[in-house]
Amino acid sequence: MQLNKQYRGVYPLLTGLLIITMILSACYGAIDISTAEIFHAFGKTVAGSGNLTLHERIFMEIRLPRTLFCLLAGAALAVGGVLLQALFRNPIVEPGLIGTSSGAAFGAALYFVLGSTLHFNTGEWTLPIAACTGAMLATFLVLGLSEKKQAGKTAIVTLLLMGIAINALFLSGTGFLSYIARDPQARSITFWNLGTLSGASWHAVIITSVVLVICFWRALSNARQLNLLILGEEEALLAGVSVQRLKREILIINVVMIAVVTAFTGVISFVGLVVPHFLRIWRGADNRYLIIGSALAGAVLLSLADIAARLLLRPAELPIGIVTSVAGVPVFIFLLRKKNYYF
Amino acid sequence: MIQLSNITCKAGNKILLQNINARFEPGKLHLVIGPNGAGKSTLLKIAGGQISPHAGTVLYETKRLETMSYQALARVRAALSQHMELSFPLKVWEVVMMGRYPHIHGNHVRKDIRYCHEAMQLFDLEELSERDYMSLSGGEKQRVHFARIMAQIWEPVPGSCRYLLLDEPLTFLDVHYQFQFMQLLKTLLQQQDLVIIGVVHDLNIAAKFADNILLLHHGKLVCSGTREAVLTSAHIREVYRLEPVIYETSDRYFLFF
């Protein structure tokens, strides 16, 4: 029994992988960019000289923000999975199952359709706010409706079934909006539902990183209490955790984080399921390790998925949600078939 | 010492506990008995601060329970509850270490590791310490949780008693561990600052080990005191609707049904 022996070496390894994937992600895509060009682009930008070559401009304006955003999104989705799984003490919960993603998609669809139809101010923040509102609405609907009257406890089966119902509701709402939408709007909505990182911009990177820094900080400061929570709400209470406050905070962190990311990327599923699960098998289930580890591994995984999405149909690109789903569904099925998970 | 004064607790219209008065002094083993639905668990939960009573007060020494924060309470009071659900692959020692969480900020230190070791030794868990909790049997899981709550209050608190509340601690244990566990409680009680309250079903266990027995029935305290005072034919007949044969010598007390 030594001080976190089992978790040793995880972070350096994952950080190393992260750096490698970052470089790959920066270099390969519809157009390959060499490392020399990357250095030149950085050099010129720092020096402030405006005459970048085409490749250098593609790198600075498209590839780099996309690479960075992809890391942020992967980290957020994976950590979101960890938080929800701890909250419901169940390893198969992920943001998509409790309505967060479909709600965000609906909010975004509303924005795409109404925003351009009604000509209201569509500043940089409007889409995230719309998606965030949708996500919160859907999530709290699911949670509120599946809460048992007396105990304040949520049975996992009720929760999942309620998730299916509310997901269906919001998906049909999104469907309706894309049905009445004009062509470019409808395409935005479709893309959105499949998940794509092609819209990543520097604005998205900045907004998301601000939100994520706060959310990760809060998540990490609650990690130990989450460990107690996975023993059971009563046990956590007995060990001095104010369970209601913890649950509320974790839910808010989770919804905000997932909603903001989803607002820019659309629906990307299974990252929140696969990454924490893999890390648990690999080393263990302490939430402090899981949060940091999932942030790193989620970033790596989503970057790899994004590279695949860019390269498989080159020069066209595949929506990343398709890639993560194809890779994630088998894992999900495997998880369900393993019997020792508690419902 | 924990003191309950005029405790009444309801669930809807149903009265779970009615006007209970009880004192739990340190150094004694207090065991609560009674038929199903008598209010034993409710009593324990009220004493542990998990539910607040509708009327009455709970005192920890001179402090009213509701004035203490969850955290402050967790440093002096540990409780074993009845469920042990956990669907994540945590190591046994990680679960035991969680008992130390109320005391530590940031990472655990050498002292916490030592306490966990000692708590695990008490329950023969040393060899299981690296095992995955989910792979354990029911009884082993229960011992892990014993070790966890022992680690929680392992260290004497200056100026305060420590309180251990056990809701049916023997459920998953075999006879060997049942007796070993009860013996262990008696040994622990030699530390004079420890208050132990337990709920048990086995009347013979209560007769053998308890210093003070509380008999609950329909939410009321029928009587409390020594085994000779509480475990009488009349009481058993009234509460359990059974006719016991009581075998009593100077140091033994058995009930047969």
UniProtKB/TrEMBL annotation, chain A:
<keyword id="KW-1003">Cell membrane</keyword>
<dbReference type="InterPro" id="IPR000522">
    <property type="entry name" value="ABC_transptr_permease_BtuC"/>
</dbReference>
<dbReference type="GO" id="GO:0022857">
    <property type="term" value="F:transmembrane transporter activity"/>
</dbReference>
<keyword id="KW-0472">Membrane</keyword>
<keyword id="KW-0812">Transmembrane</keyword>
<feature type="transmembrane region" description="Helical">
    <location>
        <begin position="64"/>
        <end position="84"/>
    </location>
</feature>
<dbReference type="Pfam" id="PF01032">
    <property type="entry name" value="FecCD"/>
</dbReference>
<comment type="similarity">
    <text>Belongs to the binding-protein-dependent transport system permease family. FecCD subfamily.</text>
</comment>
<dbReference type="GO" id="GO:0033214">
    <property type="term" value="P:siderophore-iron import into cell"/>
</dbReference>
<feature type="transmembrane region" description="Helical">
    <location>
        <begin position="12"/>
        <end position="31"/>
    </location>
</feature>
<feature type="transmembrane region" description="Helical">
    <location>
        <begin position="316"/>
        <end position="336"/>
    </location>
</feature>
<feature type="transmembrane region" description="Helical">
    <location>
        <begin position="157"/>
        <end position="180"/>
    </location>
</feature>
<feature type="transmembrane region" description="Helical">
    <location>
        <begin position="200"/>
        <end position="220"/>
    </location>
</feature>
<protein>
    <submittedName>
        <fullName>Iron complex transport system permease protein</fullName>
    </submittedName>
</protein>
<dbReference type="GO" id="GO:0005886">
    <property type="term" value="C:plasma membrane"/>
</dbReference>
<feature type="transmembrane region" description="Helical">
    <location>
        <begin position="96"/>
        <end position="113"/>
    </location>
</feature>
<keyword id="KW-1133">Transmembrane helix</keyword>
<feature type="transmembrane region" description="Helical">
    <location>
        <begin position="251"/>
        <end position="277"/>
    </location>
</feature>
<keyword id="KW-0813">Transport</keyword>
<feature type="transmembrane region" description="Helical">
    <location>
        <begin position="289"/>
        <end position="309"/>
    </location>
</feature>
<dbReference type="InterPro" id="IPR037294">
    <property type="entry name" value="ABC_BtuC-like"/>
</dbReference>
<feature type="transmembrane region" description="Helical">
    <location>
        <begin position="125"/>
        <end position="145"/>
    </location>
</feature>
UniProtKB/TrEMBL annotation, chain B:
<dbReference type="InterPro" id="IPR003593">
    <property type="entry name" value="AAA+_ATPase"/>
</dbReference>
<keyword id="KW-0813">Transport</keyword>
<protein>
    <submittedName>
        <fullName>Iron complex transport system ATP-binding protein</fullName>
    </submittedName>
</protein>
<dbReference type="Pfam" id="PF00005">
    <property type="entry name" value="ABC_tran"/>
</dbReference>
<dbReference type="GO" id="GO:0016887">
    <property type="term" value="F:ATP hydrolysis activity"/>
</dbReference>
<keyword id="KW-0547">Nucleotide-binding</keyword>
<keyword id="KW-1278">Translocase</keyword>
<keyword id="KW-0067">ATP-binding</keyword>
<dbReference type="GO" id="GO:0005524">
    <property type="term" value="F:ATP binding"/>
</dbReference>
<dbReference type="InterPro" id="IPR003439">
    <property type="entry name" value="ABC_transporter-like_ATP-bd"/>
</dbReference>
<feature type="domain" description="ABC transporter">
    <location>
        <begin position="2"/>
        <end position="243"/>
    </location>
</feature>
<dbReference type="InterPro" id="IPR027417">
    <property type="entry name" value="P-loop_NTPase"/>
</dbReference>
<comment type="function">
    <text>Part of the ABC transporter complex HmuTUV involved in hemin import. Responsible for energy coupling to the transport system.</text>
</comment>
